[in-house]
Design brief:
Layout: H1 3-7, H2 10-41, H3 51-81, H4 86-92, H5 97-119, H6 123-141, H7 157-173, H8 175-180, H9 185-214, H10 221-224
Helix pairs in contact: 2-3, 3-5, 3-7, 5-6, 6-7, 7-9
């Protein structure tokens, strides 16, 4: 393996070491929080501490930052080192200065929007910064070099990951609405969407493992990419 191949491992390593443990902790605290709420509503004595809800929110905020962060790391590696990315374009003399500057600006724009989303209090600003953060991920993900597998979008690590990241961003944006809503409609939306996100994270574990097997090492790419992937033939 070359240095560039080790860089490719930053994203999956952070997912295993940081993000997936946070998913487990957040899910556990979410379950405890709901069970405590149901037990109190039924007039039962509960042994679940009241701090569970606050811890769930705090860890959930860390989870959102982690998911968006490793998504940006994966996209950064892809647009630079991926097939037809910055390195390949520079080698062939096709690298455009404006395009490169625009993508770098989009990374800064997305990170800044996420920071402002964490700091926003009014619903309108939370909606604006959540939308801008999501748009930033989508625009960056549409660039050359990103391994998307668009013909298999339903089983694509990229599309599943972007969907999970967008759900995390939306969940962060509605946290304050959940506690201010007396009808519990936002709470129900939060439960449904994050249950879906949990399934997407499971899919990420499966598709990510598959992509590590499918994406060739840097020294293998010239030969591998000459193969006929449709007919599964290499001459």
């Amino acid at each position: 393996m070359k240095f560039v191949d080790f860089i490719a491992l930053i994203h999956p390593v952070l997912a295993v070491v940081f993000v997936f443990p946070l998913i487990g902790i957040t899910s556990y605290l979410a379950w405890n929080t709901r069970q405590r709420r149901l037990q109190i509503a039924q007039g039962k004595k509960t042994q679940i501490p009241p701090i569970s809800g606050k811890n769930h929110v705090n860890i959930g905020r860390w989870l959102t930052a982690g998911v968006v962060g490793i998504t940006l790391i994966a996209l950064a590696y892809s647009v630079v080192y991926g097939s037809n990315g910055f390195i390949d374009k520079a080698s062939s003399g096709n690298l455009e200065l404006f395009s490169t500057f625009f993508i770098c600006l989009m990374f800064a724009f997305t990170i800044t929007s996420l920071i402002f989303l964490y700091r926003a209090r009014l619903p309108i600003w939370r909606g604006i910064f959540a939308t801008l953060t999501g748009m930033g991920l989508i625009v960056i993900g549409a660039q050359d070099g990103v391994w998307r597998l668009s013909n298999q979008w339903y089983w694509s690590h990229y599309y599943i990951g972007i969907a999970a990241a967008l759900l995390m961003i939306f969940s962060l944006a509605i946290v304050q609405d959940i506690y201010q809503d007396r009808t519990n409609k936002w709470r129900q939306v939060h439960i449904i969407l994050n249950s879906l996100a949990l399934l997407l994270f499971i899919g990420q574990g499966m598709t990510g493992t598959r992509d590590l097997l499918e994406i060739p090492l840097s020294w293998q790419k010239p030969t591998i990419y000459q193969c006929d992937f449709t007919n599964k033939i290499c001459e």
